[in-house]
Amino acid sequence: MTNAQDVETNEPAAQEVEAHEAAAPSKLSHTIWFWVGCIAVIGLYAYAISAAIGNWIGMDQLATILADGLSDIGRVWLVVGVAVPSLTLLVSLLIGVGKKRSTKLLLMVAGLTVVAVLQLDMMHLVPTTTYLG
User: Fold this and answer.
1) 81, 93, 92, 91: which is closest to 50 by C-alpha?
2) 109 touches 90 (CB < 8 A)
3) Most buried residue among 1, 9, 23, 78 by CB atoms closer than 10 A?
4) Whole-angstrom Cα distance, residue 133 to residue 64?
């Protein structure tokens, strides 16, 4: 009878171990997806910054060919185009310090959304002739 009692008392412990082992892969998969999301969002920030730098180089060459170079306001718009994604990423990372991982990722995505809206507005509302000196 002692063997039957031992088996009955070990069953709940075995169920707890199985439940704990099932939770471990779930936590690992959440960690992997968090890092994949962070890398993707930071990659999009890097793309926004490199596109802004490419616009600066292209507009500088175009302004040199068509006019005497970039105007002062044109330089300001190009600096804003490079600075906004960089500063937005920095601010979203600083606000996310001490917060949960999901909150950090959502802050970075929200910042990326702001960057996209500002870049689209600049592209459509600032005339190309503004850049020419």
Assistant:
1) 81
2) no
3) 78
4) 9
Q: Tens digits of per-residue pLDDT, 62-119?
A: 888 988 888 999 999 999 999 999 999 999 999 999 999 999 999 999 999 999 999 9
Q: Which helix (H) or strand (E) holds 132?
A: none
pTM score, whole prediction: 0.76
* One-letter amino acid for residue 73 of the chain: I
Listed in sequence order, the residues at least 6 apart from 86 whose beta carbon sits closer than 8 Å to its beta carbon are: 49
Measure the CA–CA gap between 102 and 106, rounded to whole angstroms.
Answer: 6
Backbone angles phi, psi at 70, to 5 degrees: -75, 145
SS3 of residue 52 by DSSP = helix
Question: Is a pLDDT exceeding 70 seen at residue 27?
Answer: yes
> What residues does 132 pair with on adjacent strands?
70
Angle at 94 between CA 91 and CA 100, to 5 degrees: 120
Answer yes or no: are the C-beta atoms of 115 and 45 closer than 8 Å. Answer: yes
Residue 97, SS3 per DSSP = coil
